[in-house]
Design goal:
It is built from 23 helices and 24 strands. Helix 1 (about 10-80) packs across helix 2, helix 1 (about 10-80) runs antiparallel to helix 5 and helix 14 (about 510-525) runs parallel beside helix 16. The strands form five sheets. An eight-stranded mixed beta barrel has the order 16-17-19-20-21-22-23-24, surrounded by four helices. It starts with 7 loop residues before the first helix and ends in a 13-residue tail after the last helix. It has about 700 residues and is of the alpha/beta class. The chain is about 50% helix and about 20% strand. It is elongated, with a radius of gyration of 58 Å. Strand 17 and strand 18 (about 490-495) form a beta hairpin. The model is unreliable at about 1-5, about 90-105 and about 695-703 (pLDDT under 50).
């Protein structure tokens, strides 16, 4: 029914295998990358060498061509027409001159030692076409250029002598002579061939002016990159061997390593969802299994489940008395006992501290959950032995059912926690099922927590007053202040609904100060009437309580003798000495002190003798079933006479009928309070009741 991790080991093994193979491939790729870098460098060096060789040959050819061009320029400078230039060239330049005929329009000469060239018209046609292909303009001096002629180098220069007449210089040099003259002897296998250079050779392509075909000068290139590879190539052998061995080891050990890692991962995953102290599932695994159970309910596989939240009673006392080691031992023993109580289909989890939780499988109603809870309570009721010390604890249990109480995990857990809170509030060591009214109380606690602080700060509360009459019922002698909260969405909230929650949240102290300040301000317009204010035990136990009360009265300017502080027996039970000291300070400053709800607590003869109360108030519960000769009448009679004998004013609360009025008046009660005379009313109605003029607009009121 619940999810598990049965495929975890297989998935982990497969993942590890993939990762190791990727690592091996990356190593191989690294070696291959290194080899590729070396090969790239070697190829670049080879290419650089080939470019350098072609550049060197080209520069040598260009230098020879410039020499020829310089001679043409010199011939042009000394000549006067082609005929006169012929004699001058022969005498001054020692050039071999070839002239086709006396009337030709061109003069051709060659340097001494230059091989003969056939300079017929066909040659000049090819020469002109070749020059045109090189974009040489005949109107200007022809730059030096070079080409091939029947397997030899041919260097050409030309210059115009007069309109339509040219002088040419042709220098034909064999390949061997050129190589020796220009220092190119290091080029090996230098030769001429038709067509482009061979693939494995380095060279230059030319136009052969003798035949008009393409010819190439080529040689065997030097390859320094090959020498680099030969010198450092052996360095790649060890990495390649290591890579091969790595692949071999990976192939052998992958499954073993993957299995070990999968087992380790399974242990880690198990630790991630289990409590390390008790070994029980933790909150994460509990939530997963609860989700699976709720999904099974939606699918119709099961009818319902119950969840229980458990909180150990008195665990903190064990920790404080015996230490954390004993606390850990107690948690371990509790976990073992709980495991014997729940079934294999159930899920027992520990959330941390002293908090446990249970998923009770197939619990469509409260019966099975109630049975499991009873067994848990019985199991943990037996004392625990902690290293020779015997301790007794209990457990509070909150229970919620799905789908009855909630269909989703978050709501269900919240409701179980609400029921647990109710179990602890009801006295602990019990199991309580969630009920709808608990959620309303929880929402009220949230309202108090979120909104009450703001309401106090923004002055959004109000005070109602219930008059206390003389025994005859004809005169108001005191006004009891009762705080009300007009909430913007909840309406008017009574004090019984939010004051206990304010005490739990710590807001009762600022609330009490607000009430006291407002009551004193209202009381300034009702001279001659005492005002009674209830004091919370938490508020009274504050070290600075008396000082804070005196500060408020000093701020407002209110007479302490007109203020009556109503205390319950709870304010003196916890620390009687401190309470007695505070009460003496209050009486010394003129305050009146009343013991509220007399007879409902510890019955308080000791307190009446020790603490100098001015008044006792008989709790309303004694008047609810009052009969003339009943037990309640006897108790009320005794309280009245006891109070009068001690010199205290006696006030009866909850007077609602004329019969009660007559009975209490006959007993000698001094003051009466209840719905028979007046309900709690706002300050404006007190103004009417007392017959005073309402305050002017702008004065502070309690509305």
């Amino acid at each position: 029914m619940f999810s598990n991790n049965k495929n975890l080991s297989h998935n982990s093994s497969d993942l590890l295998s993939r990762l190791v193979w990727v690592a091996a491939i990356l190593l191989t790729g690294t070696v291959a990358l290194g080899a590729g870098i070396v090969a790239t460098i070697a190829a670049a060096q080879n290419d650089d060498a080939a470019v350098f060789e072609r550049s060197e040959v080209t520069k040598s050819l260009e230098r020879r061509a410039r020499d020829v061009a310089n001679k043409v320029a010199a011939a042009q400078a000394v000549g006067d027409g082609l005929e006169g230039l012929s004699d001058q060239l022969a005498q001054r330049l020692e050039l071999h001159v070839v002239i086709d005929a006396p009337d030709v329009e061109r003069l051709v000469f060659a340097p001494p030692g230059s091989a003969e060239i056939d300079v017929d018209d066909r040659f000049f046609q090819r020469l002109s076409a070749w020059m045109a292909a090189q974009d040489i303009e005949p109107e200007a001096r022809v730059p030096a250029t070079y080409g091939m002629y029947a397997g030899d180098f041919l260097f050409v220069a030309a210059a115009p002598m007069e309109v339509g007449r040219w002088v040419f210089a042709l220098d034909r040099v064999s390949i061997d002579d050129f190589q020796q003259i220009n220092g190119l002897s290091r080029l090996s296998h230098l030769e001429i061939s038709h067509g482009s250079p061979p693939r494995d050779a380095n060279g230059l392509a030319f136009r052969d002016l003798a035949t008009g075909e393409t010819a190439s000068l080529h040689w065997s290139p030097t390859r320094p990159g090959d020498h680099l590879v030969a010198r450092i190539g052996w360095i790649a052998v060890p990495p390649l061997a290591a890579t091969f061995l790595l692949f071999l080891l990976v192939a052998i050990n992958t499954r073993r390593v993957a299995a070990d890692l999968a087992a380790s991962h399974e242990r880690v995953a198990d630790h991630a969802v289990r409590d390390p102290l008790s070994g029980l599932p933790n909150r994460v695994l509990f939530s997963e299994r609860l989700d699976a159970a709720l999904a099974a309910i939606r699918d119709g596989a099961i009818d319902g489940v119950a969840i229980m939240f458990l909180d150990l009673d008195r665990f903190k006392e064990v920790n404080d008395a015996y230490g954390h080691q004993a606390g850990d031992e107690l948690i371990t023993q509790v976990a073992r006992r709980l495991q014997t109580v729940v079934s294999d289909d159930d899920t027992l989890a520990r959330f941390g501290g002293d908090e446990f939780a249970v998923i009770v499988a197939s619990a469509a109603d409260e019966e099975r959950a109630r049975d499991v809870a009873a067994r848990i309570l019985h199991s943990l009721a037996t004392p625990f032995d902690l290293h020779g010390a015997t301790v007794n604890i209990g457990v509070s249990i909150g229970i919620a059912l799905a789908p009855r109480d909630a269909p989703d995990r978050e709501t269900l857990m919240r409701l179980a926690d609400t029921a647990l809170y109710e179990a602890k509030s009801a006295g602990r060591n019990r199991a309580i099922h969630f009920r709808a009214h608990m959620d309303a109380e929880l929402q009220m606690r949230k309202v108090v927590s979120d909104d009450l602080r703001r309401a106090i700060a923004d002055d959004e509360l109000t005070i109602y007053y219930q008059p206390i009459y003389s025994a005859a019922g004809d005169r108001v002698v005191c006004l009891e202040a009762l705080v009300r909260w007009p909430h913007p969405t909840k309406g008017l909230i009574a004090p019984d609904s939010f004051i206990p929650l304010a005490e739990q949240s710590g807001l009762v102290i600022p609330l009490g100060e607000w009430v006291l300040r407002r009551v004193c301000r209202d009381g300034m317009r009702w001279p001659g009437v005492r005002l009674a204010v209830n004091v919370s035990p938490i508020q009274f136990r504050q070290r600075d309580f008396v000082d804070s009360v005196l500060a408020v009265l000093d701020e407002v300017g209110f007479d302490p003798s007109r203020l009556e502080l109503e205390l319950t027996e709870g304010v003196v039970v916890e620390d009687a000495d401190a309470a007695e000291a505070a009460m003496h300070r209050l009486r010394d400053n003129g305050f009146h002190l009343a013991l509220d709800d007399f007879g409902t607590g510890y019955s308080s003869l000791i307190y009446l003798r020790r603490f100098a109360f001015d008044k006792i108030k008989i709790d309303r519960s004694f008047l609810e079933s009052l009969e003339g000769v009943g037990e309640s009448a006897i108790l009320v009679h005794s309280i009245v006479h006891l109070g009068r004998a001690l010199g205290m004013t006696v006030t009866a609360e909850g007077v609602e009928t004329k019969e009660q009025h007559r009975f209490l008046q006959a007993l000698g009660c001094h003051e009466l309070q209840g719905f028979l005379f007046s309900r709690p009313v706002p300050p404006e109605e007190i103004d009417v009741l007392l017959g005073i003029t309402p305050p002017r607009a702008g004065r502070t009121t309690a509305a």
